[in-house]
Write a structure and sequence with these properties.
It is a single chain. This protein is an alpha/beta fold. The protein has one domain: 3-Layer(aba) Sandwich (Rossmann fold), CATH 3.40.50.2300. It is built from 5 helices and 5 strands; from the N terminus they run βαβαβαβαβα. The chain has a 5-stranded parallel sheet, sandwiched between helices. The radius of gyration is 13 Å and the shape is globular. The chain starts with a strand and ends with a helix.
Length: 121
């Protein structure tokens, strides 16, 4: 059975690239257009991994991570930030919010698959 990944990004092209990359590696992927959409999808279905951008309208990635970590079934679920943000301060805020890992965009598809395999198999 394939692992389910929730990919949250306000950029359609990034969602499409993440979708293609992970589906080609055998993962099942559900998209969300921003943090609120992602949170709603996470509440309606359990995912093995959440991949989120930071800078999005309505709810940013850090707020989303904090909200997910309040849900018992997501307290141990890996959450990766996939964002253009690369400052140590932002990464520190991500860790404090509960992010499992951090990848900077633009991303290398092979590196994304490698990281996803490392955290969920």
């Amino acid at each position: 059975m394939s692992k389910n990944v929730l990919a949250i990004d306000d950029s359609a092209s990034i969602r499409q690239m993440v979708n293609f990359t992970l589906k080609s590696a055998g993962y099942s992927v559900v998209d969300a257009v921003d943090g609120r959409d992602g949170l709603a999808r996470a509440k309606s279905q359990q995912f093995d991994l959440v991949l989120t951008d930071q800078n999005m309208p309505r709810m940013d990635g850090l707020a989303l991570i904090r909200a997910l970590r309040e849900i018992p079934s997501y307290q141990r679920t890996p959450i990766l930030m996939l964002t253009t943000e690369s400052s140590d301060e932002m990464k520190s805020q991500g860790r404090a919010a509960g992010a499992t890992g951090w990848m900077v965009k633009p991303f290398d598809p092979l590196k994304l698959i490698e990281v996803v395999r490392k955290v969920i198999g």
